[in-house]
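To the wet lab folks,

You asked to see what we're planning to order before we commit. Fair enough. Below is the target structure as tokens, and below that is the sequence we designed to fit it. If anything looks off to you, flag it before the synthesis order goes out.
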């Protein structure tokens, strides 16, 4: 007989980096769609969820917004005791009550309203783009118009997240919601001082994060960054960093400008998915700063990779074909994230060249590891170029025999 007991409701817990008295309890769906509120013990009577939480000794304040429940504890309470009791109370109320915040519109305050508005903007305008990089940003809480944001996924620990916040999210939020007093990043990025952005014009401590002098060497006139430190900032291993610098997949720029207190040397490092930059001041102090925008790669560089791909494939013996996309990337010294995509783009360029020259597609010699066939994009492009090829192993093997005659 099957077990028809519904699965236990998931309640995730997130501690606050800045306020040990506050804990966030996060659900998989909104507590009560379209409703949010802040409660004190005196205001909890009409809301079943608030009543259940305030019945727990030590709970001092409750704020509900979307799928988040922020609970503030009293000075004498401990989270080790409170967390399981709060989670159980949340499950009990949500499993038995259709309106955990009450049937009437629950009492709302400016912070609760602002939390809803900020999260809505993030979900509609920011997160779809950030998700393309494997990250997300959400509202942790709002207190006295101070918006606390939390980065997750690929954005957590990313050296470019400060640039993302400054150039995108902050601009968007302040334009839509001028009542915001302060925007604070509460993500644990493994270093740095919060907040990112304050309401005054002083430079943010996070944006000018000190870099330990021991990781930078400029004693011989050339600026060198400790590879282990830099690799961590770029999300790489030191070996991958070294290989990327050697083959040009990672770019390093150094420039000097005149600052108020003397010359400032900026070193910027651009990997395919992350960037990092630091300013070296004339007094020897070094600060990590948001990296500048990366200039687009030139057509010449793309053409160079296309030539390298063609040369390598033409050099392969018959028994070395086909070769997988990842093996081809490694053979060209490309190990970083995104390398297979670059190789695929270069292969598409060879197909256009081969079609124009009425040659067989050299790209037919590259396949997926699992299927043993080229990617779907190969067949689609071949058809678009008027030279359709059957998606069949035997037909491809016959086609590859035409590649034995090399230019």
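Sequence we intend to order:
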């Amino acid at each position: 007989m099957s077990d028809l007991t519904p699965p236990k409701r998931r309640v995730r817990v997130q501690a606050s980096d800045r306020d040990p008295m506050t804990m966030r309890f996060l659900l998989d769906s909104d507590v009560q769609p379209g409703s949010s509120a802040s409660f004190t013990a005196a205001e909890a009577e009409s809301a079943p969820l608030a009543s259940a939480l305030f019945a727990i000794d030590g709970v001092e304040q409750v704020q509900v917004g979307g799928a988040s429940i922020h609970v503030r504890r009293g000075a004498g309470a401990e989270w080790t005791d409170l967390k399981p009791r709060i989670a159980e109370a949340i499950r009990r109320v949500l499993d038995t009550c259709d309106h955990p915040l009450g049937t009437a519109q629950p009492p709302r305050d400016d912070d609760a309203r602002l939390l809803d508005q900020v999260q809505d903007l993030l979900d509609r305008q920011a997160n779809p783009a950030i998700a393309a990089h494997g990250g997300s940003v959400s509202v942790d809480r709002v207190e006295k118009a101070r918006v606390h944001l939390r980065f997750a996924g690929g954005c957590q620990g990313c050296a470019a997240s400060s640039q993302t916040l400054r150039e995108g999210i902050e601009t968007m939020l302040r334009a839509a919601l001028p009542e915001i007093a302060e925007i604070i990043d509460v993500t644990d990025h493994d270093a740095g001082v919060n907040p990112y952005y304050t309401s005054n014009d002083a430079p943010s401590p996070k944006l000018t994060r000190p870099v330990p002098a021991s990781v930078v060497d400029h004693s011989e006139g050339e600026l060198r960054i400790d590879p282990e430190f830099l690799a961590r900032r770029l999300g790489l291993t030191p070996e991958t960093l070294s290989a990327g610098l050697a083959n040009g997949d990672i770019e390093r720029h150094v420039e000097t400008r005149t600052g108020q207190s003397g010359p400032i040397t900026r070193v910027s490092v651009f990997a395919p998915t992350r960037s990092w930059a630091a300013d070296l001041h004339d007094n020897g102090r070094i600060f990590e700063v948001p990296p500048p925008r990366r200039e687009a790669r030139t057509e010449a560089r793309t053409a160079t990779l296309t030539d390298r791909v063609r040369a390598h494939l033409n050099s392969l013996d018959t028994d070395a074909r086909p070769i997988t996309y990842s093996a081809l990337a490694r053979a060209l010294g490309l190990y970083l994230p995104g390398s297979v995509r670059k190789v695929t783009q270069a292969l598409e360029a060879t197909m256009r060249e081969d079609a124009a020259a009425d040659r067989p597609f050299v790209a037919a010699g590259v396949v997926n590891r699992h299927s043993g066939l080229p990617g779907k994009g190969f067949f689609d492009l071949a058809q678009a170029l008027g030279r359709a090829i059957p998606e069949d192993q035997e037909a491809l093997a016959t086609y590859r025999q035409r590649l034995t005659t090399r230019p």
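Structural context that might help your review: Confidence is low (pLDDT under 50) at residues 154-161, 189-208, 296-302. The domain at 12-96 is CATH 3.30.1370.70 (Ribosomal Protein S8; Chain: A, domain 1).

Thanks,
Computational group
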